[in-house]
Amino acid sequence: MTTVKDIFDHINKIAPYNLQESYDNSGLCVGSGKMRVTKALVALDVTKDIIDEAQQKGAQLIITHHPVIFRALKAIDPETVVGMLLSCGIASVSAHTNFDSSLMNDILCRRLDLHPSEPLTEEHGVPMGCVCELENAVSADDLARHIKEKLGNTVVRYNDPDKTSRYKGGMITKAAVCSGSGAGLWRDALAKGCGALITGDVKHDVFIDAQNEGFCVIDAGHFHTENIFCEYMRAELSEQFKDVKFETAESNADVVSYCV
């Protein structure tokens, strides 16, 4: 009989919870570790649609990358996702920054056919991101198109230093990767000799500052750079717990729409 705690403990082995950042709230957010699990859904976030799906499919557990409780709650409304989980008797376990530090960027690099050579930086002794040597020099445009194809993005945003006369003809031979919201690390990537940073959630001022330095920042989206969590976790847990059916939630989708 597999319990929520059994699954939590295995996640702790592959992505130790002691590596999570101090601001994070990874782990068992809702439910009891003693709950028996025969079916579980895996998703990037807990949404109301995913809770409905879990209830319809008889799942006792939802495993996500982003914690369903991130900041302290002062009240629980039954109409919120936390209230719905409690009402339905569904547990929620997450692996956020501990998974980022342990596995996420290596998985993202493999998806992009990139080969990490060293961490991009460290925070509190924990590695953040990867630096990758490219097999062939590429333009910013070609690298962005490659990422779009590999991740299945609708849109990839990037600045192209080649569009300015000062940096005309520059090619990228080394790129940094940081899933989620890693735009603040672009100067670390520049200092490591990279010509580009692949990440998500990039603000306008970052594109401007990077362009002025002849550096390319590629915004492949928070969802698309981290949704790789789902298939990895589903496969890993399915191999470990043969008596539990793990599924990537059908409702797991980018909630942002794009007009193209």
Strand order of the largest sheet: 5-6-8-9-10-7
H/I helix tally: 9
What number is the mean pLDDT? 96
Query: Would you report the number of β strands?
Result: 11
Distance between the termini: 49 Å
Unreliable stretches, pLDDT < 50, 5 or more residues? Answer: none
CATH class of the largest domain: Alpha Beta
Report on the structure:
The chain is α/β, with parallel strands linked by helices and 260 residues long. It folds into two domains: 4-95 and 227-248, Udp-n-acetylmuramoylalanyl-d-glutamate--2,6- Diaminopimelate Ligase, Chain: A, domain 1 (3-Layer(aba) Sandwich), CATH 3.40.1390; 99-225, NIF3 (NGG1p interacting factor 3)-like (Udp-n-acetylmuramoylalanyl-d-glutamate--2,6- Diaminopimelate Ligase, Chain: A, domain 1), CATH 3.40.1390.30. The protein contains nine helices and eleven strands. It has a six-stranded mixed beta sheet, sandwiched between helices. Helix 6 links the parallel strand 8 (172-177) and strand 9. The longest helix has 15 residues, at 97-111. The chain is elongated, with a radius of gyration of 20 Å. It starts with a helix and ends in a 12-residue tail after the last strand.
